[in-house]
Amino acid sequence: MPIIEIAHLGKAFRTPTRQPGFVGGLRTLFTRDYTVTHAVNDVTFAVEAGELLSYIGPNGAGKSTTFKMLTGVLMPTSGSITVNGLVPTQQRRHLVRHIGVVFGQRSQLWWDLPLADSLRILQAMYGVSDEAYQARLRLFNDILDLDAFLTTPASSLPKPMPSGARPCCWPPTIWPTLSGSRGACC
């Protein structure tokens, strides 16, 4: 059984179109025209446990929107999603105990602290045992070669930041990462 299943997923955003000028603004209060932007359109895929997936595309292609729907942050306009057998928008609280998502931003780290200190704070915040923390840190160090960055403050980390830093603190069974225009899931 796939760990992630997406079928005919779509997300459209409706934004009101405001008419120019004072009279146009008043008219907008009573009659609204909308512009519809399709951020995700008919996406279908499945990921088996242990399988790697790269989700790539140019800026504005819907990568972040798809991940937000996968985590239950956004509700799809159409289609269906299951993650670990759960529907993210209906069972979000249960789902978030088993996933971790990183949007390659350094803002997740404390700006003046070395990466290792930030990771220890996150470990404590999420209640991750020392054993689990060390195992994840070794895993991500093997994948991302984090040793060179552990003593470096976030303000001095190279751009883009090593995008796997945060999940080593989480207890997820699924670790999607999204940084810029690349993503992976395992």
Can you tell me about this structure?
With 186 residues, the protein is α+β, with helices and mostly antiparallel strands. The protein folds into two domains: 1-19 and 35-92, Rossmann fold, CATH 3.40.50.300; 101-169, no CATH class. 26% of the residues lie in helices and 25% in strands. The protein has five helices and seven strands; from the N terminus they run E-H-E-E-H-E-H-E-H-H-E-E. Strands 3-7-6-5 form a four-stranded mixed β-sheet, covered by helices on one side. A three-stranded antiparallel β-sheet has the order 2-1-4. Strand 6 (177-179) and strand 7 (182-185) form a beta hairpin. The longest helix is centred in the C-terminal third of the chain and has 15 residues, at 130-144.
DSSP helical segment count: 5
Give the overall shape, derived from the CA principal axes: extended
Determine the mean pLDDT.
77
Radius of gyration: 20 Å
Structural class call reads alpha+beta
Q: Which architecture name of the largest domain does CATH use?
A: 3-Layer(aba) Sandwich
CATH superfamily of the largest domain: P-loop containing nucleotide triphosphate hydrolases
Strand order of the largest sheet: 3-7-6-5
The biggest beta sheet reads: 4 strands, mixed
Q: What is the count of structural domains? A: 2
Flag low-confidence runs: 161-186
Number of strands: 7
CATH topology of the largest domain: the name is Rossmann fold
- What is the name of the CATH class of the largest domain? Alpha Beta
Helix content: 25-40%
Give the termini separation.
Answer: 15 Å
> What is the percentage of strand-forming residues?
15-25%
